[in-house]
Write a structure and sequence with these properties.
It comes from Clostridium innocuum. It is found in: Cytoplasm. It catalyses: DNA(n) + a 2'-deoxyribonucleoside 5'-triphosphate = DNA(n+1) + diphosphate. Keywords: Cytoplasm, DNA damage, DNA repair, DNA replication, DNA-binding, DNA-directed DNA polymerase, Magnesium, Metal-binding, Mutator protein, Nucleotidyltransferase, Transferase. The protein is α+β, with helices and mostly antiparallel strands. The protein folds into three domains: 172 residues, 2-Layer Sandwich (Alpha-Beta Plaits); 63 residues, 5' to 3' exonuclease, C-terminal subdomain (DNA polymerase, domain 1), CATH 1.10.150; 160 residues, DNA polymerase, Y-family, little finger domain (Dna Ligase, domain 1), CATH 3.30.1490. The chain has 15 helices and 14 strands. The strands form three sheets. Strands 9, 10, 11, 12, 13 and 14 form a six-stranded antiparallel beta sheet that branches. The chain has a five-stranded mixed beta sheet with strand order 5-6-1-7-8. A three-stranded mixed beta sheet has the order 3-2-4. A hairpin with a 4-residue loop joins strand 10 and strand 11. The longest helix has 21 residues. It starts with 7 loop residues before the first strand and ends in a 6-residue tail after the last strand.
Length: 416
């Protein structure tokens, strides 16, 4: 007897942050508006925009400077993450009325497994329509949804119609609906993999799907085999229960500087702010990491990253910074100024308070540094981030006058 297909929905709250701001302030619906960083200081990027801003070809992810060049009258609002979390959780509360298998994917997206809900509530498409209508009528928000028999195709379906769309991808129609799409629409096909595939004239999902599985594995390794399965609709990953908490894989911070970073010294002082933020966030969660990654984006919009593994996991900024500076000095010459820089710690583990003995590092000194940084955390929590800083950061307040906890936090979790 053939196993019955699952019914998986992927939901995406349309223009989530912008939609919530318009709900709070209806007048914003009539003007081009975006949620981003600090308009006056050029901090940050566009996180979300409304339809009026979209008409000016403003793109999510571009810098505020680029967006304002396209639309000088653009209204830019600073993100209010607490508010966004509140409203997105209310949306997910509606999902949870139909199943306990609701897996968040960021604030505004989720997978919903309705396989065991149809006897009570109707077909997958029928339940998805009910959810869309309830979210709109009860909360004043719209969601796009994809319905399929696996998570990958459901996600692609929700991306096909971004304005309250509802798309069903089945075993009968996926070759017609999915295979003509560009190959980068698949999970794990990033820019580098896309270019490698293009070298072999593979540009669509269908072209990839019809290759021999062994050919993909030989040339692209495990990732090649995985995306081959995805292209052929063979994703079997489960939707996690609502109560299931995915382990944190990495913690980081990145910032688009208020002016171009033209020298090693400029980058150094910004990296101190970022490293302190990452270390503080790790300590808050009782975590530490042993893989340090630096990410750079030049003014020509080219990306560059390097990483190094530590002998001993850490959550102390004074231990993170020497590695960051070493990676920076060894790999970037500043012939082209930088616009965005970031630092991330991976290899995350629980901070048990125990460390391996290290002949080259004094445990007394480590303890002293940690106590110092925890004291700085306490002062900042009480009086504000800028109330205590390293003297070196005063060299250029224009570069370092930002609160990294309110800017672009990089905090990804595992997908599978």
């Amino acid at each position: 007897m053939q196993k019955k297909d699952r019914i998986i929905v992927h939901s995406d709250i349309n223009h989530c942050y912008a939609q919530i701001e318009e709900m709070k302030y209806p007048g914003l619906r009539d003007v081009p508006m975006a949620v981003g960083g600090n308009e006056e200081e050029r901090h940050g990027i566009i996180l979300a925009k409304n339809d009026k801003a979209k008409a000016f070809h403003i793109r999510t992810g571009e810098s505020l400077r680029e967006a304002l060049a396209k639309c000088p009258q653009l209204r830019i609002l600073k993100p209010d993450y607490e508010e966004y979390m509140y409203y997105t959780e209310r949306v997910k509360d509606i999902y949870r009325e139909y199943t306990d298998k609701v897996e968040s994917f960021g604030l505004d997206e989720a997978w919903i497994d309705l396989s065991e809900s149809t006897a009570l509530f109707g077909s997958g498409m029928s339940i998805a329509r009910k959810i869309q209508n309830r979210v709109e009528h009860e909360l004043g928000m719209t969601v796009s949804m994809g319905v399929s028999y696996n998570k990958i195709f459901a996600k692609i379906g929700s991306d096909m119609d971004k304005h309250k769309g509802l798309v069903e991808i089945t075993r009968e129609n996926y070759r017609e609906r999915i295979w003509p799409l560009p190959v980068q629409d698949l999970f794990y096909v990033g820019r580098a993999t896309k270019h490698k595939l293009a070298h072999y004239s593979i540009e669509t999902i269908g072209q990839l799907a019809q290759l021999p599985q062994g050919w993909m594995k030989d040339r692209f390794g495990k990732v090649g085999e995985l995306i081959w399965w995805f292209a052929n609709g063979e994703d079997v990953s489960e939707v996690a229960l609502s109560s299931h908490q995915e382990p944190v894989k990495s913690v980081g911070n990145a910032i688009t500087a208020p002016k171009d970073i033209k020298s090693f010294e400029d980058a150094k002082i910004v990296y101190y702010v970022l490293a302190e933020s990452v270390a503080s966030r790790l300590r808050e969660q009782g975590l530490r990491g042993n893989v340090i990654s630096v990410t750079l984006r030049s003014t020509e919009l080219t990306w560059f990253s390097r990483q190094r593994k530590l002998a001993q996991a850490t959550n102390i900024a004074s231990e993170i910074m020497p590695v960051v500076l070493s990676l920076l000095e060894e790999n970037y010459d500043f012939s082209i100024p930088l616009r965005t820089i970031g630092v991330t710690l991976g290899g995350i583990e629980k901070d048990s308070g125990m460390t391996q003995l290290n002949l080259f590092v004094s445990e007394e000194e480590r303890h002293r540094q940690r106590m110092l940084e925890e004291t700085m955390d306490a002062i900042r929590d009480r009086f504000g981030f800028s109330k205590i800083q390293r003297c070196s950061l005063l060299k250029d307040r224009h570069l370092t006058d930002f609160n990294p906890k309110e800017d672009h936090v990089v905090h990804p979790v595992g997908f599978f």
